[in-house]
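Researcher: Re-running this chain for the archive, since the previous output was lost when a drive failed. Same request as before.
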Amino acid sequence: MDRVESEDRAPLAVEVQHEPNGPVLRLTGELDLSSIGVLQEALDPLLEGKPPRLVFDLGALRFMDSSGLAEVLRTATATSVELRNPSKIVRRVIELTGVSGILPIQP
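Model: Regenerated structure tokens:
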């Protein structure tokens, strides 16, 4: 399992687990403009490998702003994306922006 962390005020940690159907990225902390580079650092090498599917486990993500959502959408242009376990506030951001039809959410 690989782990990338932010040292910013709003820390983000990304753990990558390699599963048979594609990688799972477990995000912990806050995903915003100050921490987006941490996610990109973990995502870019995975996307180069052209996985058939990529899962974002959002169960430990406390906050996500539009820059985080944009990065998830960018990923969805490269491969199939699934979102797992979003908190109420993260789920609300996804639903209010109208992208829940593009980004399937699993409880």
